[in-house]
Amino acid sequence: MRKTISSGFKKALNFNDDDTTLIRTEKDIDMRKVLIVCGIITVFTFLFYWWATGEILLALVGAGFLAVAAFFFSAVSGYIAGVVGSSNSPVSGMTIATLMFTAALVWVVGDLLLGMTTESLMTATLIIAAVVAVNAAIAGDVMQDLKTGHMVGATPWRQQIAEIVGVMVGAIAIGPVLMLLHDAFRISKTACYRDPLVDPDTGLVPTTPEGIAEVCETALLAPQAELIGAIISGIFGGDFNLPMVLIGAIIACIIIWKKMPVMSVAIGIYLPIYLSVPIIVGGLLHFFVSRITHYRVDGTLVGDASQEAERTAKGVTDKGVLIGAGFIAGESLMGVLIAFFIVTFKHPRDWFDQISQLGQTLSLIFYACFVAVFAFLATRSIPRTEGHNFATDCLQVVIDAGRRFINSVRPP
Q: CA-CA distances (angstroms) from residue 19 to 6, 14, 22, 136, 155?
């Protein structure tokens, strides 16, 4: 990407187009002002790094490395988001790559030159990795917004001001929200095992391994954070689970070699079954909606779908993705609201004693209702064709899927 970064940087600084009058949809915030602000942020990062580690040399080297790494990874993340969307931006991979470089830098400067303690080395590494990860994530999000704005004719500099306000508001709000969620549920089971929750039945903090494991079942999952913590503690603490990492690398190589979807397999490995089931249900709904649309546009399921059928199916499934995104956002907001009640008043399950006695039955009923609402809304955009109804079309899709499966496993 060096040519892309170089040409974009020169264009941003107007090295080549000083006398060119830009149209409204091409005007950005003055890059010189942006660089000044970035320099000020780097100075504040150095001061914070110095305060957190107590070593001026490590703070100086770390802040410089952080600025360089953040610049290049932000460029990569923004570029990828512009091409394939922010949801496919490999922030986790870039964070782990940064983590490896940072660990080597901190080990040389902090351990060999300054003789810092292991805990201080781990803290110094985590700070740089966290800041670079946030940079890459925000870069992808901003690029996605700018791309969307370009498609609808927005003014870039106005969008960029709104992005700055959004980042500042998010930075202020995320701290209290994370503290609230941690106090209510504990973020990650590792943190819960170190500081267990109060047992709702006894009102006491459990002391036995069985009791701690029971109250930590509701801890929020944070697989990326757990992975980063495992890498840092493994590098500096010597307890890195190398066999499991090598097994994961081998599995990933096989999946990529066989050209299978890596993310789908990874989600199935690190998510519990109660979170994987909704993904499976959503995948089945996506399959049926797409195939029914193909059937109604082409009139047959035999052979590949036509371009018109593919285009129509994409429009239908895009609306389903939008509905699903709304469900996810709503669930997240409700989780924060429930955490607020847990911390400030009492757990909502204590409000309705009779309902709580139903156990998982009520959860399954609510889940079925949500699936029904989602399916109803997602299927409203399927083309209406005379002689077709949803039930018989589903049956035809099932028969076709069975036929395709039999043909795929039948010996040649």
A: 20, 9, 9, 33, 20
**Under 8 Å CB-to-CB from 113, ≥6 apart: which residues?**
57
Return the number of other C-beta atoms located less than 10 Å from residue 301's C-beta. Answer: 18
Helix (H) / strand (E) element for 343: namely helix 307-344
C-alpha distances out from residue 116 to 44, 61, 75, 90, 124, Å: 22, 15, 33, 32, 10
Residue among 249, 224, 267 at smallest CA distance from 96: 224
Tokens 């709000």 belong to which residue?
Answer: 173
Burial environment of residue 254 by CB neighbours within 10 A (0 to 12, 13 to 18, 19 or more): exposed
320: which 2 tokens?
């389903």
pLDDT score of 75: 84
pLDDT of 209 above 80: yes
In contact, 65 and 105? CB cutoff 8 Å: yes
Closest CA to 92 of 220, 227, 1: 227
The token duo for 27 is 């005007």
Does pTM top 0.70 for this prediction? no
Angle between helices 223-237 and 118-152 (to 10 degrees): 150
The mean pLDDT of the chain is 83
* Model pLDDT for residues 54-105, shown as the tens digit of each residue: 888 888 888 888 888 888 888 888 887 777 666 666 777 777 878 888 888 8
Q: Percent of the chain scored above 70 by pLDDT? A: 93
Q: With residue 73 as reference, give the H or E element that holds it.
A: helix 56-84
